[in-house]
Design brief:
The chain is mainly alpha-helical and about 55 residues long. The chain is built from two helices and no strands. The radius of gyration is 14 Å and the shape is elongated.
């Protein structure tokens, strides 16, 4: 799976979570928001590791 596909999947999960929140499905939308946030952070960290932009913090 390349970066574009991962970004599209993360965006889709976020949009589905937003629609779930609007329709009142708060537990499902919370889970989808959390998975989108985790996936986004994992993708950003993997990109940093590939380019060698690690910090000491």
């Amino acid at each position: 799976m390349n970066d574009l596909q991962k970004d599209i999947l993360t965006g889709t999960v976020f949009i589905i979570g937003l629609l779930g929140f609007i329709s009142g499905e708060f537990i499902i939308s919370s889970t989808l928001f959390a998975s989108a946030a985790i996936a986004s952070n994992v993708n950003v960290n993997r990109k940093r590791v590939k380019t060698g932009q690690l910090s000491c913090e």
